[in-house]
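@channel sequence for tomorrow's demo:
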Amino acid sequence: MRAYKTQPIEESKLRRIFEAANIAPSAGNLQAYQVRVVRDQAKRSALAQAAYGQGFIADAPVSLVFCADPERSAQKYGKRGSELYCLQDATIAGAFAMLAAVDLGLATVWVGDFDEKKVQQVIEIKTIRPVAIFSLGYAAEAPKPSPRRAIEEIFQGDFPQTD
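structure tokens (generated this afternoon):
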């Protein structure tokens, strides 16, 4: 979704999205991620610029920045934790949040194309790594679904046969 109404998001809906992210599975149940909630218009505009001019980020009433916490994961899993597991933790939590948002009638889009250092500056972080920015709000458009690959092309091995 890249067009949003100015309508604010109810606090109860935000809370439910946060709760959904919080129950996402994570490596060793460490939850090696943090999420920055950005409501301030100036910061959302700065995030949009850090995302190479993706203006819809500034237009949505809320941005969520999912960040991996390499140090938290490294404490238990060493290098693999700091390089992989924390990224997986952040993306799984993001996917749970995204599904919850859509279930609550909100619209969102996963933004991964951004200047990492600039995003860190905007949200004032140093040791954690931004992985994804979600713009979040009520849809102001109804775009057509994007085409998808056939499941037979994606899933390999013992593929289920149709009845």
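heads up for whoever presents: The first strand starts at residue 33 and ends at 38.
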